[in-house]
Each structure stands twice: as C-alpha cells, then as structure tokens.
Amino acid sequence: MRLPFPVSALERVLAPLEHAHGLPAAAYVDEAVFALEREALFSRSWICVGRECEVSSPGEFILAEVAGEEIVVVRGPDLELHALCNVCRHRGLRLVDVERGRVAEFVCPYHGWSYELGGALRAAPFMPATFRREEHGLVPAPVGTLHGFVFVSLASAGAEAAEPLASALGGAPEWLARPELAHLRLGRRVSYETSANWKLCIENFQESHHFQRVHPALERLTPSARATTWQGGGSGAWLGGFMELAPGATTVALEGGPAVLRGARPSIVPDAQRRRVADAMAFPVLLTSLQPDYLLTYHLSPRGPSRTGVVAKTYFHARAFNPTLEADDVFRFWDRVNAEDRAICERQQRGVGARAFDAARYSLVEEGVLAFDQRVARVYLAALS
C-alpha cells in the first residue's frame, strides 16, 4: 500500500510528548489513507456494537455498522449470540432495516426467504431440486462479549482470523468490569453523522482542556484542571482518564442532577468513586464515559475521510426505570455537549484540509491524544511494511 506521506512523518509521531509531531494532515483527508484504515484496521479489529442488555432475550437483535458492512447481532433460542451479515442470500436485500427489535425468524420482504436466528436458511420458495439450503445460510461473523459489551469482527478465516477478543482488548479498566454495571439497561439511543474524520472525534474525546472554550457547562461540573490521564494496560488497547466532580455536583447533568438528589436514579459505581467521571476508549472506535449514575457510550462508524457515523447510548441502573425513567436532565445536557463537539470537530475538519496546515505539536496536557495517535501511526507503519 502507498500512503501520501513518508515513513519519517510517522516516526515523528512516535517521539516523546515534548518532541512529537501529530499525524500528517493527509491522514485526516486522503481517500487512500481511509482505504488503508478500513482494510488494515476496521475490518480486522473487534468493533463494539452495544451491550448484552440490549439482546438479553431470544429473538432480540441490534443492527450495527462495522467497517462499512451491516451486521445483525441476535440472541438465539440457544441463548447464544449470533452475528450475521444483513444480506439475504437470494437477491441481496437488506433483511433488517430498523436499529433494534425482536423476531422469531428473519424473513426477506422481497421473495420470502426465511432464516433461523442462528442464520440457517429455513425456507426458499420455488428453488430447483438441485438447490442446497445448507449452503445458503446468512454469512456469519465472529462475535464475543467482554465486561457486558458485545463486539463483532469481520476477520473470520485463515490469516485474516480475528485475534481472540480477550487478548485483543485485554487490560480493560477495572471500573468497566465491576459487577454494578451488570444491572444496566438502555435508556436512550441517538444516531447522527459528523462531517469530520473519525480520528478528530477521538482526539477530541482524549483531552479536556478544550472544555473552557467549547463546553462551559461541562467545565463547571468537571473542571479540566482536575483531569488526569489513564494509559491503560495489557494489550494497550484501552486509553482514558478521570475527572473529579466540582464541589456540590452529584453527577453530570442539568442543575447537577436533581433526579439523583431525589433518589430516582441509583448509583452504578462504588461509594468511593461517586465523586469522579471515568472515561475510556477501546481502540479503535468505542468511547465510554462512566458517570456516578449512568454510562455513556459512543460507537463511531468511519464512512469516509470526512464522514463519521455516531451512535450515542445512555444506560442506567435497572431500578431507574421503576416506574418510569427520569433522565431528561441527562439527555438535554449531553445533547448540547455533543452538538458542541460535533460543531468544533467539523470546523477543525475544514481547517486540517487547508494547505497551510501541517502536523501539529502536542501541548503538555495532550498525552492522551498522543497515545491514540501513536496507535494509529503503528497501524500505518505495519501496513506499509
């Protein structure tokens, strides 16, 4: 593969923070770079599509985008998870066109081919006697779970086989593995597209010193001066950090979380961790933010050099839904913050494509951004070699 920048430009990214340069500008705008990422990274990585609570009963499914492909993840009658390509084997129709639901079987609305939840072809009307149903089931993909998250990979055979999930994403932060999160249920799902490169979106997540100018409401609740970086462990696939809540704040929401004060939303973290927010990224495209009483996740779907699909989900303790969920203070707050992030990343995208822009230098509080960029640079170098 050829890339529009020399190896030396990537080696500068691997330097220590005080001397490192950012990724070349072409990494954010060039079609060849995006093609390499799709082939060498997204198609070979474990991509998170949701949490187990979304597919807990037989027949429950979620539809997700993985490396440009649509994958349906469904709980079978055997209580196992199955990941299936969302393509009928007859004429290529999309079988599922809703984000989530529950079915007894998958039936193609075009010609009536039907499939079991495990993917086997059940019925194919008017096919000749020579037709073999066992050869025309839905195409499967590897699927696995880790700490309540559901991951899918498109790498499935031979040299392309997916690395075992536990080793590929080893070293997850301890706060995502705690038993309290087993009680989570999905409160809301929002999807949108950002006109910015996926790496800009993650770099934005990896630092907080933009809060003062971009997110004044967030800065008041989680002051950026009190943020610390967490570099992960194990495979190095996880990066993140902590932010302490400001005095008087009980969570990150409008007015500091009145529903929490009324006891409407139970805590989902141990008592010792109720005064902090813990963020973590699972490389390459899962972002998580654990708040005292809810969990935010962002699933990024890179669609082009300057297009990124985002699915934002908010999870609460199951007891928060009794009798109804009181979470408008959370939803309205993050709708505003997400819109601010979207606008600033899109403005940045327009700038990095300019001739005047060159590889950036890092500030001393951008060690999390550098750690992410170094992971990306190593992917480029491995593909080139």
Rg over CA atoms, rounded to whole Å, is: 22 Å
Q: Encode the helix/strand succession as letters.
A: HHEEEEEEEEEEEHEHHHEEHEEEEHH
Largest β-sheet summary = 7 strands, antiparallel
For the record, the count of structural domains works out to 2
Q: What is the highest CATH level, the class of the largest domain?
A: Alpha Beta
**How many runs of DSSP E, i.e. beta strands?**
18
Helix content: 10-25%
Strand percent estimate = 25-35%
Distance between the termini: 9 Å
CATH homolog superfamily of the largest domain? Naphthalene 1,2-dioxygenase Alpha Subunit, Chain A, domain 1
DSSP helix count?
9
* Backbone shape: globular
Please provide a written account of the structure.
With 385 residues, the chain is α+β, with helices and mostly antiparallel strands. It starts with 6 loop residues before the first helix and ends with a helix. The longest helix is centred in the last third of the chain and has 25 residues, at 328-352. The mean pLDDT is 94. It contains 9 helices and 18 strands. It is 22% helix and 25% strand. Strand 2 and strand 3 form a beta hairpin. The protein has helices spanning 7-11, 31-40, 165-168, 198-205, 211-214, 216-221, 258-261, 328-352, 367-384, and strands spanning 47-51, 60-66, 69-75, 81-85, 100-102, 106-107, 114-115, 121-123, 140-141, 143-146, 149-152, 184-194, 228-230, 238-244, 276-282, 286-290, 295-304, 307-317. Helix 4 (198-205) runs antiparallel to helix 9. The protein folds into 2 domains: 47-168, 3-layer Sandwich (Rieske Iron-sulfur Protein), CATH 2.102.10.10; 174-384, Naphthalene 1,2-dioxygenase Alpha Subunit, Chain A, domain 1 (Alpha-Beta Complex), CATH 3.90.380.
